[in-house]
Amino acid sequence: SAVEYGLDAPFAVEYHDSIPSTNARARDLAAEGASETVVLADEQTGGRGRLDREWHSPSGGVWLSVLFRPDVPMAHAPVFTLAAAVAVTRAAREAGVDAGIKWPNDVLVRHGDAERKLVGILTEMEGEADRVSWVVVGIGVNANVDPADLPDEATPTSLSTERGEPVDRRLFTQRLLEEFDALRQDTGQVVEAWREYATTLGKQVRVETPEGPVEGEAVDIQFPGALVVETESGTEVVSAGDCEHLRPV
Ligand code: BT5
Fold first, then answer.
1. Which of 65, 87, 152, 181 meets the CB 3.0–4.6 Å disulfide criterion with 26?
2. Does domain 204-246 have CATH number 2.30.30.100?
3. Which residue range or ranges hold the BPL/LPL catalytic domain (predicted)?
């Protein structure tokens, strides 16, 4: 219920028991001229991932979107996805869950060779090339939800499953927003922090990009969020795509 969220957050918080999508709502608020606002819901009935994929959002999760208006060019916006991944990883670790980041937008928990998806992040924006008008960073955390209620093929997990007991969503969300607020205002520290939690670096990867697949060893990440891959034919810098961790050959 809303009562659980007596949030002391660095943003105005709009809470919904149930809403189609916090990102959609935050975009509407942006169109109305709002800023520095978090839309938070217990349940989403039309949650979205990248490329219009479905994001399952049953009651008990932390489904939220942060709307803000940073003074940055459009091309820098991916740094806010990384910032969100770092912030949520720190909050998860403080809650006792050993999360790591898979480029570009997944926060995972490793179980041996298996990686289970704990969080998804979806960043949307509008503006001119030299300056964004607004950014909405959507963060979906499987907090106190049963992975059996989530799509199997995603090999999902949740904070409550990993901890063996529910997480205090108010505290978790507060820590997440504090970390995110600090990082979005000091984006120079984001890449460094990201490297600390990355599970992708040093791995053989296959990235499906709009220009075709890129396969090789992920060796680094560059501001504002591109992955550097050593392929057989040389170094490639990939700014977006779906990334698969391959087994070491
Ligand atoms: C993402 O997309 O991972 C970004 C998800 C962003 C969700 C947040 S919640 C708050 C805000 N409001 C929204 O409407 N969205 C944002 P992508 O990388 O495309 O992954 C989507 C895929 O993850 C789906 O195709 C499923 O296979 C899988 N999936 C769906 N729901 C899941 C869940 N709850 N946990 C783990 N995996 C899930």
1. 65
2. yes
3. 6-188
